[in-house]
Structure formats: C-alpha cells, structure tokens
Amino acid sequence: MNFTYHLPTKIFFGSTCIADNIVEFSFWGMRPLIVTGRSSAKTSGALADVETVLKQLGMEWSLFDRIEENPSFATVEDGGAAARAHDADMIIGIGGGSALDAAKAIAVLAVNEIPARKLFDGNFPAQPLPVIAIPLTAGTGSEVTQYSILTDTERQTKRSFASRALFPKAAFLDARYTQSLSRTITINTAIDALSHAVEGYLSRRSTAMSDHLAIDAIRHFSGMFNALGRDSLTLAEREELLYVSLLGGMVIAQTGTTMIHSLGYSLTYFRHIPHGRANGLLLAEALRFMQPAAPGKIASVLAALEIPDIDTLKKTLSSLLGPEQPWTREELHTFPEIALQAANIANTPRIPDQNDLKTILAASC
Ligand SMILES: [Fe+2]
Predict the structure, then answer these.
(1) Which DSSP state fits 68?
(2) Ligand 1 centroid vs 196 CA: distance in angstroms?
(3) CATH 3.30.360.10 fits 182-362, yes or no
(4) Which of 62, 94, 250, 310 could bridge 134 with an S-S bond, Cβ 3.0-4.6 Å?
(5) What residue segments make up the domains of the chain, in order of their start?
(6) Architecture of the domain made up of 10-177
C-alpha cells in the first residue's frame, strides 16, 4: 500500500455552520471580494448570511456577482481586476462549480497580472489569495479541490488547471442553501457528484484512501435515487446529497476524473448540456467500456448502488435525466477528437481511442 493524501481545506458541514463559526472568516483577511453568480447567492440566503458575518467582524467587502455558467477567461480577468481595485486580501466564493472555480482563478489573477489563458501553464509567481468556498449546489465538490475549470474558446472546450495553492482554506456546507434549486439542477448536480465518486474509484490514480471515500459516497447516493425521482426533497435528503458531493470532491482531488469528464466537456461546450447531465448521459456506456479493465471495481460500484447491472443503471439514469437529441455525424466525429486531448483521459483504466469514444457516445442518448 503506497499513497499520499493531501486535503488542506477545513470543512464545516451542517445547518447554520457559517453563523456558528464566525471566527474562521477572520483568519484569512479583512478585505474580502465575494465572487458569485447573478442570483443564487441571494435567493439561497447564503449571501445574506456571509454579509452578516462580515459586518460583525468589521470587514470591508466588495461584491463581484458576474460569474456565468461555464466561466470565460474574460470574466475571471475582470474578477482579478475587481479584486485589485478593492485591494482584496481574500476571496469568498459562493455558488455552484462555476462560481467556485472562478473564485479560485480570480484568487490567482488578483495577485498575478497575467492573461487567464496563462493559468494553464501553472506558472504564477505570486501565491493566490486565500479562498473560502461556500457551495450552493450538491455536485461540484470544488470546495475541497485544487482544480479550477474554465471555458477555453480557442480550444473549444472546458479546461482545468490545478495547483495545491488553489485548495480553499475553508469550506462551509449548509444544505439549506440547496433547497431553492430546481429539480433539474438538483438531479444534474447530484449525478455530477456520483460521477466524481465513480470515476475517482476507477481512476488509475485511485488509492486505498480515495477508494474508501468513493465507495462511501456511492453507498450514500444509492439511497437517493427515489428521492431524486420526486418533485421535492427533504432537508435531510439534501444533506445526504451535499455529503456525497463533498466526498466526491475529496476523491477527485486525489484521483482526477476520467474519460467521462473528458468527453462530457464537449457535450457542454458545443451542445450546452449542463455538466452533470453530460456525465450522466455517458456514465453507463463508459462503465461498459471500462468493465474488461476493472471488472471487480465495476461490480463494487453496482453493488454499492444496489443496482444489478449496467443496463439497469442506464435505465435508472435515463429516467432521471430524460431523453437527449441524437448526436449528428459531425458531433460523433468532433467530440471524441477533442476529448482525446484532455489530460484526464489518461486516468481511465482502459484508455479509449477515437473510435471507442464514438461508439460510447453513439450509444449514450
Ligand atoms: Fe464534474
């Protein structure tokens, strides 16, 4: 047994965890820039809770609430400029994966005046500002990872950069903030979390530690299939999903993702299919492809999900996700071609070629 495990993020989980841990905000700075999207931080109540804490601590904060879904280079560059204009010494990211990933990029760009595309070279001399992460969806796990995923229009895909300096210093997970999510967003993000756990479990970089977390995440998810099929979820069920999402993030921080995320990026970039839905559409056929290389682990995934076989998993996911328009001939050619350039494809236990990806994609709608 030979592994490393690194998770420098302090995790606070539970209702009112922000108000109950005010002092944690004071460790990292006095002039925060809050990075978020246009509305979810407000409608969820998370922004009001954070502002109450900052007021109590006498902090001067500024709000950058312009993060769009799948954030662009221009947006995070603007965020970096906003941080410098405010003389920010910390970043508080509030939102789904897009806002949290943008918060990390902005933490780097605030102190390194470089174009956002240079982030992918991993070469930023000044240490990023400390980040506090408050997820508003149960899916991304970005609150406990060293990754930031941005949209690269030049390469026509989503791309991630990683640095151990990007791990948030603290993460506050309060499932009440996910209660205002629509059923569709709840399902899509939950399936992203499941995909993180499954992909991390199958990754070539998986370890005994990450496997333990992944299987626990998958087991917790198995009880949620019925809940996700209903119109509304209880707070306890939303806590379960937030826990799965947290564990999924802890897993991929160690293992990376696999071909499912590689191919899913094209579905999101070109078809505007939400990230979690893209993974969910591909999951069953990708498992079928990987099965010869990892039969024992795939059996363990199905057992943890309490699902008898891959066909049943496909039907279960389809019933949650609903149908997708068939892929065009051009999409079946281009999406696999672009996916093969993604770094995470190398984590897949059975490495696909373009034809394999085309077959998986063709069978996934
Ligand atoms: Fe993901």
Answers:
(1) P
(2) 6
(3) no
(4) 94
(5) 10-177, 182-362
(6) 3-Layer(aba) Sandwich (3.40)
**179 CA distance to ligand 1 middle (Å):** 21
Q: Extract the tokens encoding 244.
A: 């799965």
Distance 241 CA to ligand 1 centre (A): 14
Has residue 322 got a pLDDT over 90? yes
Distance of alpha carbon 167 from alpha carbon 110, whole angstroms? 16
Over the stretch 266-283, which tens digit does the pLDDT of each residue have?
A: 999 999 999 999 999 999
Contacts of 219 (CB under 8 A, 6+ apart): 304
- Distance (angstroms) between ligand 1 centre and the Cα of 15 equals 25
Which tokens sit at 325?
């328009």
Closest to 191 in 3D by CA, of 321, 90, 88 = 321
Q: 259 alpha carbon to ligand 1 midpoint, in Å?
A: 12
Span from the CA of 140 to the centroid of ligand 1 (angstroms): 6
**Global pTM?**
0.96
56 CA to centre of ligand 1 in angstroms: 35
Q: Are 100 and 71 in contact (CB under 8 A)?
A: no
Using DSSP, state whether 148 is helix, strand or coil: strand
Question: CA-CA-CA-CA torsion for 190, 11, 206, 148, nearest 10 degrees?
Answer: 70
Ligand 1 center to residue 262 CA distance, Å? 10
Distance 192 CA to ligand 1 centre (A): 5
